């Protein structure tokens, strides 16, 4: 019962717990404790240029949440904080915390209304009349940069898994649908010397991808394809279509359409790969799926969620992919690979 009560406190105080984390990140508390191990409350307050009482409240929260360890009168980073919350750590998620604070928190109080309306009601918090967050952020350059930094942080970590675990040795031309800034394509082409890749996205996004491709040193094997993946025909010179962290954004109907278009454009033996975080087939987790899915309903598009493995598998089979395989990956990610036999 005590464990259940502790978990309930985490839920009931979730907004406070996150703001404790966000404040500590914005003050760079974890960077301070990496540089100066074992500081007292008074020393921390002095370094952060805050009074000792608010510093004490912040340290209480971070310690109770397991981000810090207190030994005697001194505070230390725990290993997870050292790895994820120090700004210069290779795997840090500071940009993701900033995204949650500056963008998602503005909208998530509308989750109830979004459930009732079945649309992204939280989008009303942002300027513009467009239907998705991605379009409206163009009106707010500061928040758009925060969003792009977070997406970059997510992509960098995910790209490593994609390149490490998904075998593309038999693929010659890959099209990354909704490929964004080209990070996926660059990572994959870097690993596979015989692979050529194309980023399929909107004109403005492809311009960003072109800049990254140009500086990658791999421009001879990378290019872009400007278009609307829902309205325009897919390129017909590919033997693999990749949907990386993309189908979570859209409805089942739209995802079925994209998978069907991929099937129709592929030659015999061609593949489609869906790569993202997955919901259990039993629909009871993991926690990452439960935390991420409300964002897609309440804010992003009002359509998507983190779908189950068997959702994607059934959609692929209905599109005509007779051979469908799943590949379990770290951090609740997975890849589902459909082959056109």
Structural commentary:
The model has no long low-confidence stretch (mean pLDDT 95). With 341 residues, the chain is α/β, with parallel strands linked by helices. It is globular. The protein contains 15 helices and ten strands. The chain starts with a helix and ends with a strand. The protein has a seven-stranded mixed β-sheet, sandwiched between helices. Helix 13 (252-265) crosses helix 15. The chain has two domains: 2-85, Orthogonal Bundle (Arc Repressor Mutant, subunit A), CATH 1.10.10.10; 161-339, 3-Layer(aba) Sandwich (Rossmann fold). It has helices at 2-12, 14-26, 29-35, 41-48, 52-64, 79-84, 94-107, 111-117, 133-136, 141-165, 183-191, 203-216, 252-265, 287-300, 309-319, and strands spanning 39-40, 68-71, 74-77, 173-177, 196-201, 222-226, 240-244, 271-277, 323-328, 333-339.
- For the record, what is the CATH homologous superfamily label of the largest domain? Vaccinia Virus protein VP39
Q: Approximately how much helix is present in the residues?
A: 40-55%
Number of domains: 2
Q: Give the strand content.
A: 5-15%
- Number of strand segments: 10
The sequence of SSEs as H and E is HHHEHHEEHHHHHEHEHEEHEHHEE
Please state how the strands of the largest beta sheet are arranged side by side.
Answer: 6-5-4-7-8-10-9
Q: Compute the CA-based radius of gyration.
A: 22 Å
Return the CATH architecture of the largest domain: 3-Layer(aba) Sandwich
Largest sheet: 7 strands, mixed
- The rough form would be described as globular
Average pLDDT confidence is 95
Number of helices: 15
Provide the CATH top-level class of the largest domain: Alpha Beta
Alpha-beta content class:
alpha/beta
Alpha-carbon distance between the two ends: 53 Å
CATH topology call of the largest domain: Rossmann fold
Low-confidence stretches: none
């Amino acid at each position: 019962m005590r464990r259940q009560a502790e978990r309930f406190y985490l839920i009931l105080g979730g907004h406070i717990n996150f703001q404790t984390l966000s404040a500590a990140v914005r003050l760079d508390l974890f960077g301070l404790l990496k540089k100066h191990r074992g500081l007292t409350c008074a020393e921390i307050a002095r370094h952060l240029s805050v009074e000792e009482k608010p510093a004490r409240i912040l340290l209480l929260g971070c310690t109770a949440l397991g981000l810090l360890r207190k030994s005697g009168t001194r505070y230390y980073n725990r290993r997870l904080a050292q790895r994820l919350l120090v700004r210069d750590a290779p795997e840090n998620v500071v940009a993701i915390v900033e995204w949650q604070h500056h963008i998602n928190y503005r909208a998530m109080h509308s989750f109830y209304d979004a459930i009732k309306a079945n649309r992204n009601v939280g989008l009303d918090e942002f300027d513009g009349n467009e239907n998705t967050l991605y379009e409206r952020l163009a009106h707010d350059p500061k928040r758009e940069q925060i969003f792009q930094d977070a997406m970059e942080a997510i992509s960098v970590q995910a790209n490593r898994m994609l390149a490490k675990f998904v075998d593309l040795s038999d693929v010659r031309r890959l099209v990354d649908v909704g490929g964004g800034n080209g990070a996926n394509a660059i990572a994959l082409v870097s690993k596979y010397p015989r692979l050529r890749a194309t980023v399929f996205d909107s004109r403005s996004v492809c311009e960003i991808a072109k800049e990254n491709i140009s500086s990658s040193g791999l421009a001879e094997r990378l290019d872009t394809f400007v278009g609307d993946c829902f309205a325009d025909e897919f390129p017909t010179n590919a033997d693999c279509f990749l949907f990386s962290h993309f189908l979570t954004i859209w409805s089942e109907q739209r995802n079925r359409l994209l998978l069907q278009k991929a099937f129709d454009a592929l030659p015999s033996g061609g593949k489609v790969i869906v790569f993202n975080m997955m919901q259990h087939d039993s629909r009871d987790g993991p926690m990452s799926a439960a935390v991420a899915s409300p964002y897609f309903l309440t804010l992003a598009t009002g359509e998507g969620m983190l779908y189950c493995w068997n959702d994607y598998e059934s959609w692929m089979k209905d599109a005509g992919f007779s051979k469908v395989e799943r590949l379990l990956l770290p951090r609740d990610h997975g890849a589902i690979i459909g082959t056109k036999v």
